Amino acid sequence: MLKANGKNAVKKGEIIFSEGEEVKQVGIVLSGKVVLQGEHVRMIRPHGSYLALNSLGSQIYNATYTALEDSVIYALPVEGESTIRNIIAKNADYRAIMVSSQFRTAVELYRIKSSLNERAQGVNEDRIPYYEEGARIPLSATKMYFSYSEEMAHIQVNEIAELVTALLEDCAEVMDYIRSLMDAMCLRSRNNLFDYICEKAHEIKEKDDIPNEVNMLLNGIADEMAFQHKELSSQTQDVPDLRMDTLKSKMEGLTSGKVPVAEERSQEEREEDIRRDVASLRGSMEQILKFAAFGDADSETLKANVDHLVNAPDRMSVEDDVKRAKKTITPLVFKLYLCCYRKIREGLLHPPKAVELFMNFGMLDERLLDEEHLRFLCSIEPEANEGPCKVVTMMEWLDMIHDGKREPSKSEFDEDYVENLRSLKKQGEITEQEQKALLMDMDRRVEYEVMNMQMSNSRTLYGQPSSYMPILYKEAIFGYLDKLLVTRKKINESVQRLVKVDYSVFYREVIYSNTELKIINETVLKNVYPDVILFPLFGTNAAMWQEIGSKNKGTPGRFCFPIMTSSNIDDMMVKMFGRFRWELCRCIQGMAWNDVKVKSLTSEYMDYIQFYRKNRDLSDEARDKVKLQIQKSRNNSRETFLIDYEAWIKNEANGSMKMNKVARELLATYCPFEKEIRMKLNAQRPYEVAQARSFRNAVKKKQELELKIKALQKVTPKVPDEIINTYKFYAEM
Fold first, then answer.
1. If I label 731, which of 217, 261, 326, 648 is the partner at 20 to 30 A Cα–Cα?
2. How far apart (Å, rounded) are the C-alpha atoms in residues 669 and 596?
3. Is pLDDT above 90 for 562?
């Protein structure tokens, strides 16, 4: 800090005031020059200029002031709202210097803005010539004029301070707009216009010559980006690097026909990107609210409650004030998520890093996290989906809903989007015409998904009801950061490991017809892996939300996982498999799901737990264990089955007997192990007995299909793959 009410010698390159720090002093440049570097504006302040005078209204420095050469600064203390009056009253020369400095600041800012945007909207342009004339008046004349009245100087300084604030906001808005255009053109690493044109040009080249207009367009983009990048870099900070050599390489690739391979970034480049991204997260909640154009009332409510949590001594507390803040924040977060998604779909502005982290990981305010958390989030890079399951982020899932690739999920009341509209019409809330319009309204489908499936599952996935809040805060994150991330690769590897044990889990019976071959309503098996949705939060649970995606029983189910977890993914996946088994059987069996006359997993298991007391195949000890199992699952038949299923996969598959005879036979019949495991376990008599029924059923099905295939071969040499694959399934059992 400078010595107050005195002269301070400052060396070249020394920082006088830092952006973001509390305003405790303002300064006067007595000699030398000082550079003012704000987020969007860079200005040189010569001798006779006031420093940080226009920061008094915000109480923090809105720019960093650095000595451009050896300088002398006179420091004046800040004394609340009366600071300007106190300075003016202290010395008649101060008021003249202050007015003259403000004149020059206003004129220079106006010129900067005019160079960015020829139309200075929102600024009183009639006053600009007046300020320009004022800036040209000799300081001695200004001193003489304003020495007669403190009030005139005070009014003049405040008037220009308001103009300076408006100009700074306008400059920031125009800078953000130019930067977003440059991002969309070529600066952002993915989905930019330059790469899109190059990609389409390569597709054209495969069939024909590339039109000259394409090359002219690419050259025009490159030249314009070079100019704009130079101009932007001279005024603002943290401008992403423009790799002109990369752009030229891509254009040359069109001529040579070679698609340039993306360069591997060095560790230093990655570290620099992370540092820049972390720095850009300052004021992340404000950035997100501004990007989403969130309502003023909701914004103020959200900010007030988040600020309360930021300052709370214990954010995991169950005290009323903390619980109330979290309860208020929760619905607003989902509303904000929907607003951000709509803005991203518009595609007019590229979302800043803060919005990207909010949408994918639930990071709303950087103050709720430590530096290491922010660095970790910024270091996460996108990955390709390689594996049997389609693993998507919540953003990607909403895109699939919006594009009509998936139907909206059911609500917690088991009501899908179409049924919900039908209910609203029945209740008289919408007309038949509105119902038809809403049925094709993709935005409303996305809203239904966010406000029902996402909102309901977020609480379940979080796993701690007392401290639930769908945004990241450091107290709720535990474990090693590098092991917390749930990736597409981890999900698919877990699925593949467990499918090697319960290999038939995703097979289901569907109806197949082929009129040419006179095949009508033939039952075949289809292997349908589920969609896995990664929710933007840290949690300890997973949820099996739907066993099928729509009315069509051949559509994939829906598993929900938190994108960060300290739980074991394999353990979570076993639970998903068990619940999926149960619900899929219930869905396929319909009304007969618990009718023991119609043999199925659910009907036989329900019969087993309902009449276990009379079952002669169970010992007294086994009956007691079944009773405890039912109590533990709170009489929920699916959760009772899940306990047996977990024992079946984790223990029985390894030859460790944890189940009773009856339960083992049921699981062996309807959830058979992979062939190699079955043959190995058959060496033990209890497993041989348990698996005998499964073998008999498979042989019977195999023989039936052999007869059908022989009959089809008389009609056509090529038997449909659906029937051949079903035959192979039973043959390999």
1. 648
2. 15
3. yes
